[in-house]
Amino acid sequence: LATKTINRDVLPDVTVIGGEPMITVTQFIASMQRHKAPLSVIEMERVYRLAMWLQIEPSFLIALWKHEGGSPFGSSELQQQTFNPLNIKAPLNEWRTIVQSNGVAFYWYESFQLGLFAGVLHLKNHYGARGLTTVREILPVFAPARDGNNVEAYIRSVLEDIAYIKNR
Fold it and tell me: pTM score, two decimals?
């Protein structure tokens, strides 16, 4: 299969909450499988459908999971413990099950599918509800510099991944 070349110097910002989907369910599943996501095809379809229903760009989920946990998906030590693909932090006084790592509390889920469902809801309710809808608006809040993130590199990486998935 031929793929389009991505001009890394010109990566336009993209709407990832509230816009039209950029990828099909087939592209979503193929990308998840390339990263060896620990989900069945049926689970991947369910995540895609929830993202579509809540207007969260599915390629954004893939790009965030790749950045937060590397590839193969679900292989990082933290994600093995939490089943939390987006590494969503929890308050220390959270009533639900949490996992502590280096003094930071993370939500724990029973499976990666449930973790992705929670991630979709988190994106919609935490960012979309505040009017943050593009990669450049969301990532400085999602992965702030105060947490040791290189925000501009993170944005560039996510935009590159979205463009790659879309053009595959």
Answer: 0.91
Closest CA to 36 of 7, 62, 70, 71: 71
* Pairwise CA distance, residues 109 & 22, whole Å: 28
User: Residue 18 is encoded by which pair of tokens?
Assistant: 């509230």
Distances (CA, A) of 160 to 7, 54, 73, 111, 144: 9, 23, 18, 28, 19
Q: For residue 31, give the amino acid letter.
A: S
pLDDT by 10-residue block (mean), the chain, 168 residues: 50 94 97 97 98 98 96 95 96 89 94 98 97 98 96 97 94
Q: Cα–Cα distance between 129 and 153 in angstroms, integer?
A: 25
